């Protein structure tokens, strides 16, 4: 071996050492692949080096890392069908390609507008093609004598790419699981009929607001809403119409409280509830009257009501919870609600201050 060959061999060994070091740094796939192609481009002054990962499920390969000094049709995310072009053929067959002159090659696709030589090596793990290392040049024979090096690099990174791919799949599955959990959690706290919060969410808000009020000494307020003569409405118009009525009322109440400190929930049946921190009884009374008048303005016909339309009654209570907790406020609001119903309905009543 002459001095030139010895120098080239030493350089290739040094390159392989650097690639091995890069492969051991972490399991984040895209940064890993980018460091590999950057190292190859720097070591050999190649104009174009890329790594395409094989998407077997879609029958495609997709570019995940790229180093190019030339204008190219290829970019990160570029994808093509397996079997298309030299890279696609390498990905589909697991064969290496060392093309010294691309002119006349039957499956060549020029993405550099003048590619003359191309080197493609599959990254294999247990006989399965995971990725393709690809180098291209405008010069004929640019990669002469480098095929073995490229194949060795592919072998070095194969296990790491496999592990990184498994990690990506695990992370994706974890994200999907978290999304599913959030959806389930949101569903478990959302009323299916009206789309607003349900009783479970309200109970959580009540405890949260009670703790905050007791710590700060600032008041909180609760209001309870009941749709007047709703059983008669259901009996007269049918349950589908009753459900539609509740949905309209829920949307109306939600529109009124939007942007305010109030948090609205369906309390059960034809009842709704709202809670607010830092709001006293008088402030909640004003809001309750807005809610009552907004529902009245919907002008939903109701033959069983004295007014001829659907209306609501509201009970309000407010203050700083004592040792017996915020549930006493809910009980006080409930008593005020029944007072409103006894006093003629379609009205707001409040619990005594305290």
Please describe what this structure looks like.
This protein has 354 residues and is α+β, with helices and mostly antiparallel strands. It folds into two domains: 3-170, GAF domain (Beta-Lactamase, 2-Layer Sandwich); 199-350, Reverse transcriptase/Diguanylate cyclase domain (Alpha-Beta Plaits), CATH 3.30.70.270. The protein is 47% helix and 21% strand. The protein has helices at residues 3-23, 29-44, 85-93, 147-188, 199-216, 230-237, 239-257, 281-297, 327-342; strands at 48-55, 60-68, 79-81, 97-99, 117-125, 128-137, 220-227, 263-268, 271-277, 312-319, 348-350. The strands form two sheets. It has a six-stranded antiparallel sheet. A hairpin with a 4-residue loop joins strand 1 and strand 2 (60-68). Helix 1 runs antiparallel to helix 2 (29-44), helix 1 runs parallel beside helix 4 (147-188) and helix 7 (239-257) packs across helix 8 (281-297). The chain is elongated. The model has no long low-confidence stretch (mean pLDDT 87). Keywords: Coiled coil. Its EC number is 2.7.7.65. Residues 218-353 form the GGDEF domain. Pfam families: GAF_2, GGDEF. It catalyses: 2 GTP = 3',3'-c-di-GMP + 2 diphosphate.
């Amino acid at each position: 071996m002459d001095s030139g060959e010895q120098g080239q061999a030493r350089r290739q060994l040094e390159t392989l050492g650097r690639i091995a070091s890069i492969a051991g740094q972490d399991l984040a796939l895209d940064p890993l692949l980018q460091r590999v192609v950057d190292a190859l481009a720097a070591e050999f002054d190649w104009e174009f080096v890329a790594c395409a990962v094989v998407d077997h499920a879609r029958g495609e390969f997709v570019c995940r890392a790229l180093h190019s000094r030339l204008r190219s049709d290829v970019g990160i995310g570029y994808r093509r069908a397996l079997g298309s072009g030299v890279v696609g053929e390498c990905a589909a067959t697991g064969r290496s390609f060392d093309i010294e002159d691309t002119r006349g090659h039957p499956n060549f696709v020029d993405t550099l507008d003048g590619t003359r030589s191309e080197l493609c090596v599959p990254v294999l793990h247990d006989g399965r093609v995971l990725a393709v290392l690809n180098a291209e040049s405008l010069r004929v024979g640019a990669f002469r004598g480098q095929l073995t090096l490229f194949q060795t690099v592919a072998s070095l990174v194969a296990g790491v790419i496999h592990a990184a791919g498994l990690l990506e799949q695990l992370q994706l599955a974890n994200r999907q699981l978290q999304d599913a959990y959030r959806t389930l959690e949101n569903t478990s706290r959302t009323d299916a009929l009206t789309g607003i919060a349900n009783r479970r969410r309200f109970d959580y808000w009540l405890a949260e607001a009670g703790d905050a009020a007791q710590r700060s000494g600032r008041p909180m307020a609760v209001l309870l809403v009941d749709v007047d003569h709703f059983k008669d409405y259901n009996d007269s118009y049918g349950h589908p119409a009753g459900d539609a009525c509740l949905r309209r009322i829920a949307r109306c109440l939600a529109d009124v409280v939007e942007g305010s400190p109030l948090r609205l929930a369906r309390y059960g049946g034809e009842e709704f509830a709202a809670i607010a921190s830092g709001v006293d009884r008088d402030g909640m009374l004003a809001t309750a009257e807005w809610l009552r008048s907004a529902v009245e303005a919907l002008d939903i016909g109701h033959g069983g009501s004295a007014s001829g339309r659907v209306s609501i009654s509201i009970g309000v209570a407010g203050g700083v919870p004592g040792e017996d907790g915020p549930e006493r406020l809910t009980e006080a609001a409930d008593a005020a609600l029944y007072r409103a119903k006894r006093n003629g309905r379609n009205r707001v009543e409040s619990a005594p201050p305290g």
